[in-house]
Amino acid sequence: MSKPIKKISLLGAGWLGAPLGVVLAEKGYTVQGSTTRPERFDELKALGIRPFHLEIKGSQIQAGADIDDFLDCDVLIINTPPGRRQPNVGEEFPERIKTISMLAQAHEIPYGLFVSSTGVYENANDLVNEEDDPQPASESGQALLTAERYLGLIQRPLTTVLRMGGLIGKQRHPGRFLDGLENLSKGRAPVNMVHLNDAIGVCLAILEQEQWGDCFNVVADEHPTRRDYYPAMARQLDLEPPTFLPTDEASFKVVSNRKVKEVLGYVFTESIFLRG
Predict the structure, then answer these.
(1) What DSSP assignment string belongs to the chain?
(2) CATH match of 7-170+192-224+257-264 with 3.30.559.70
(3) pLDDT per residue as tens digits for the range 11-46
(4) Tell me: the pLDDT tens digits for 181-219?
């Protein structure tokens, strides 16, 4: 029988990490969260998250003296995106993940959860799933895939990868994403989104079912086209709807969520249209 999970450390207590930490604390876990901005300490404490200052750039670590306490945990959740505008992201981000994973190994953390992205998949004009061999077109997608593959080679922490769709919620409303923009391309391309609540729900399912060393797509059931979705969302906020080119042969992908529903029995509960 595996050791019960009691303490969870979040590398990155931002838009996803902080609310995830709140839910974990409510469920009785001891939750620790890192931030690159010490001025957020009071905010995180108020959420029930013990804050730590930790910043990793490639192999360089800037941290408080209590980093050993942060790494004293049963599960390390790595939620630090590569950043599309990050210089040299293709080399810096995988090195960053390697650095934190080596620290995790040294502290004998048994389990890990890595928040990746559906950006690892190419636009194959088809349905894509976890069994496909990803061929990312962007440098950030390639950086994520390299990090995924590195984590898959190590047994401690035994890490599950979550390939998240575009994260949305009340505080990250998609109506603002393309507000007022004109003559956009890729109007016929379907979106691959997931609501914050479902992103948190899948993380909880992994923890509760101890589904380690696996990979799951985390996207909603709905895949409307960009030209249908973004104008509708802009109108929810009384913003100027974006417009799209009348003809467009844009490439696309539809990311399957079948595996997470079949293996974890997860049921997506939130509409990406944010109704109500």
Answers:
(1) -PPPP-EEEEE--STTHHHHHHHHHHTT-EEEEEES-GGGHHHHHHTT-EEEEEEEETTEEEE-TTHHHHT-SSEEEE-----TT-TTHHHHHHHHHHHHHHHHHHTT--EEEEEEEGGGS---SEEE-TTS----SSHHHHHHHHHHHHHHH--SSEEEEEEE-EEEBTTB-GGGTTTT--SBS-TTSBP-EEEHHHHHHHHHHHHHHT--S-EEEE--S---BHHHHHHHHHHHTTPPPP-B-SS-----EEE--HHHHHHH-------TT---
(2) no
(3) 999 999 999 999 999 999 999 999 999 999 999 999
(4) 999 999 999 999 999 999 999 999 999 999 999 999 999
